[in-house]
Amino acid sequence: MEYETIVGLEVHAELNTKTKIYCSCRNAFGLEVNTQICPICTGMPGTLPTLNEKVVEYAVKMGHATNCSINNVCKQDRKNYFYPDLPKAYQISQADIPLCEHGYVDVMLDGGVEKRIGITRIHIEEDAGKMLHNDAFQGSLVDFNRCGVPLIEIVSEPDMRSSAEAKAYLETLRSILQYIDISDCKMQEGSIRCDVNVSVRPKGSTEFGKRVEMKNVNSFSGAMRAIDYESNRQIEALERGEEIFQETRRWDDLKGENFLLRSKEDAQDYRYFPEPDLTTIYIPLEKVEELKKTIPELPNAKVKRYVKELGIPQTDAELIAENLQRCGLFDECVSIGGVSPKTVSNWILADVSKYMNETGKDISESNLTAEKLVKIIKLIEDGKISNNSGKIIFDEIMKNNADIDAVISEKGLSQISDDSAIEKIVNEVLAANEKSVNDYRGGKTNALGFLVGQCMKASKGQANPAKCKELVLKFLNG
Amino acid sequence: MELYEMSANELSLMLREKKCSSEEITRSVLDRIKSTDDKVGAYLTVCEENALSKAREVDAKFAKGEQLSPLAGIPIGIKDNISTKGILTTCASKMLYNYVPPFDAFVIGKINAADMVITGKLNMDEFAMGSSTENSHFKKTHNPHDLDRVPGGSSGGSAAAVAAGSAVVTLGSDTGGSIRMPASYCGTVGLKPTYGAVSRYGLVAFASSLDQIGPLARNVTDAAMLFGTICGHDSMDATSADREYPDFAGKLNSDVKGLRIGVPKEYFGEGVDDSVKQAVMNTVRELEKKGAQLVDISLPSTKYALNAYYIISSAEASSNLARFDGVKYGYRTENYDSLIDMYEKTRSEGFGDEVKRRIMLGTFVLSSGFFDAYYKKAKLVALKIVEEFNEAFGRCDIIATPATPGTAFRLGENMGDPTKMYAADICTVTVNIAGLPAVSVPCGKVNGLPAGLQFIGKKFDEQTLLNSALAVEELYGETRPVNV
């Protein structure tokens, strides 16, 4: 039998606000353990939370960016459970009324096919601390720095049908989070994490199978592996005539397997109830609208515009739009104008990206500006320098922040495109190579390449090769 | 008269007239603690050295002619669930037997800024759960009026200290009557402010939506002075009201002419001692003679209030008390073989029976499948109660009821029967559910024991409450410490 895989994702993204969600401690990663803490985020008796309004703003922005409706009146709730990294023994979250709900994102699948994935809800909550296991110490230690770091949880509809679709969805979410600048999206720092829900059903069936939730998925590629593994596990079980149970499993990416964490019967009862220490969240409608206006053109819209209006191939457009720095540079170059967008795109995807990958730097941290890049491309397109010279200039800019004109004159990179100058060289070369001229005229057309090469040589490489070829042909055929 | 017998208001004047020093007042109170507390058991921690050094500091300020707050140099006792930096704050629980907070509660900041002298921390029912102070892990507090009887609870230490003269004024906390009830049993004044008038920051939470800190004193003026000192907006408490408050003590006025006093029949029905009803009714009739107008009102949902209260308060408590898990501070069991084992043993050994009972009750009512039937329904009852109060306040300015259904009962008398113990809160819980202010003021004696009249006011109208309480006080006279 053929099966269909159904995937739904719960993505947790840490917000990059300056301070934590319920106290004024710094929201920062990678600092010495238990230094970014206070009595409030460590849940000391008698302390009370007060909501950081920036967190609400950031979440509303994400809601707008994912086409959600915004519940401008909502509340916060307590999710109760015991764990040493949760010092209040409850997490302040949102239960029945999330800040944002009923949204969607359009994701681009392979082959340029677009698919709409529903967003069930987005709510705000606080992160817990981190357990540290140290051989030197018998037992566990807790780092509370992460306690109270603001999170949004983005819950999707079960709209994905493969691990590839899930990956496309995750990448779309990540680029949106980066575009609206509310999360650092550093997977390795745990600033985006996801829980994966997988079920399978016979192809053509309209009913969903039993859903299995997987925890501990720590990367996008891990999510793909986890989905493929779980989907196969369920299909194999069904093929053997076994039943699938609603349960929670733990993904082990190293082993490439998952393990039962708890069955439905053991599911925790979080005993949600309204957080009495906090008042109702109320966002004036004007504020909701104001936040909507801050949402920039999002990756999907960019890709569509690049393809339709600028003639950029789909794959290239996606690569440009995927990265905020790349598309920022691209958009700026295009708006300066005077150069072909396709050439700009080629430069960004080749030379610029290569440099960034090699150095690990962001474009904003480098010497490159849109003005400089446009100038190089324009010099090439106008035939003032060769393509090769352009790359030399680019390297000089990146390494030494060199001035473009200075590099051209110092290295003698300026290209001869003046017709009369090239004509003079062509005349001399043809006169000195009568045999080749006759060969060509006798039908040996490969003599053309030799003659053009001789012209280039005579010009010490500075003649515009296209111009040379054009003039040589003109004389030979004239 | 000894200094410890004087009111804060009198002492404040004497300090300014240089008739005594803060150190002398403080020594007098500390001596009183020494001579009475073996019998009364109001204090869990006495801060003798801190108190004396603070008193001397205040005396030096007076000597320099500094302008100080009206309560500067006056000793105060603090209920042991209010966080005091560097001073044990146990909530009368084994769970926090060694807990010293790293910060001061907002009200302690106010007390310190007013240059009051903290004499120590006062006994209470464990985590403020109880009506007799018998649920303290450490000791029982005795009613100074009759040492065989309870002082009421949960702020039993706060009321007993004021009644015995081992404190001039005290702070208590009131979740369902925990200030007013012991104030009534011990013959003192106790004010439960409007929810949001006093910051809860640093008050170890029992039920967040109901808890309020308030003053206990031997007279209305002292209570008004202390309330005026601790109220005010706090940006650290999201439920704190952002508003200005009048000078309550300065504006005290006992004229009740034209005051419409609502008398709700539901508070004078079954379960309330006839003698208490009589004492309260006699008092309001005296006020009527002075020009007040009595209005019959009805608050029909009162009969559901106790159930709703125990559901809501226990639900919140089950969550608020979950943090006491042995991980970071306080008590941790000695032997355990896993995390779960550590949690279970720590909490089984660290909490007393009443606290465990409420945690279990609260956990149950929040459980999936029961939430709608209990918690949600209780919240609907709360809305109904608010509605009925609003309606009633359309026809009257304040409401008069008994503060407690009876007078102080004997130690041990109700310990075997939790529901009987809970019934002692029947007159007070509606006020917390509706977030209203209320005061308990002595209205004479019944069978030789103090009886308390409760006035319930409109939100943030503590002034009318205190004015009315002052009118009652003028009928019976100011209270002085009783002989122990």
Describe the structure.
- The complex is a heterodimer of chains A (478) and B (484).
- Chain A has 478 residues and is α+β, with helices and mostly antiparallel strands.
- Chain A has 3 domains: 289 residues, no CATH class; 115 residues, no CATH class; 59 residues, Arc Repressor Mutant, subunit A (Orthogonal Bundle).
- Chain A contains 15 helices and 16 strands.
- Chain A has a 9-stranded mixed sheet with strand order 2-6-7-10-1-11-12-13-14. In chain A, strands 5-4-15 form a 3-stranded antiparallel sheet, with no helix packed on it.
- In chain A, strand 13 and strand 14 form a beta hairpin.
- In chain A, helix 2 packs antiparallel against helix 3, helix 6 crosses helix 7 and helix 7 runs antiparallel to helix 8.
- The radius of gyration of chain A is 30 Å and the shape is elongated.
- In chain A, 40% of the residues are buried.
- With 484 residues, chain B is α/β, with parallel strands linked by helices.
- Chain B has a domain of 293 residues: Alpha-Beta Complex (Amidase signature (AS) enzymes), CATH 3.90.1300.
- Helix content of chain B is 39%, strand content 13%.
- Chain B has 15 helices and 11 strands.
- In chain B, strands 1-3-2-4-6-5-10-11-9-7-8 form an 11-stranded mixed sheet, sandwiched between helices.
- In chain B, helix 5 runs parallel beside helix 6, helix 9 crosses helix 11 and helix 9 packs across helix 12.
- The longest helix of chain B is centred in the C-terminal third of the chain and has 21 residues.
- Chain B is globular, with a radius of gyration of 21 Å.
- The relative contact order of chain B is 0.14.
- The model of chain B has no long low-confidence stretch (mean pLDDT 97).
- The interface between A and B is large, with 28 and 43 residues.
Give the secondary structure arrangement, pairings included:
The complex is a heterodimer of chains A (478) and B (484).
Chain A: E1 3-14, H1 53-65, E2 69-70, E3 73-74, E4 77-80, E5 90-93, E6 100-109, E7 113-126, E8 130-133, E9 140-143, E10 150-156, H2 163-179, E11 192-202, E12 212-217, H3 220-239, E13 247-252, E14 257-263, E15 273-274, E16 281-282, H4 285-293, H5 299-310, H6 314-322, H7 324-336, H8 341-359, H9 370-381, H10 387-400, H11 404-411, H12 419-432, H13 434-441, H14 447-458, H15 465-477
Parallel strand pairs in A: 12-13
Antiparallel strand pairs in A: 1-10, 1-11, 2-6, 3-16, 4-5, 4-15, 6-7, 7-10, 8-9, 11-12, 13-14
Helix pairs in contact in A: 2-3, 5-6, 6-7, 6-8, 7-8, 7-9, 9-10, 12-14, 12-15, 13-14, 14-15
Chain B: H1 8-16, H2 22-40, E1 43-46, H3 48-63, E2 75-79, H4 106-113, E3 117-122, H5 156-164, E4 169-174, H6 180-186, E5 189-192, E6 212-217, H7 220-230, E7 260-264, H8 274-289, E8 293-297, H9 302-320, H10 339-350, H11 353-366, H12 372-392, E9 398-402, H13 418-423, H14 429-434, E10 438-446, E11 449-457, H15 462-476
Parallel strand pairs in B: 2-3, 2-4, 7-8, 7-9
Antiparallel strand pairs in B: 1-3, 4-6, 5-6, 5-10, 9-11, 10-11
Helix pairs in contact in B: 2-3, 5-6, 7-15, 9-11, 9-12
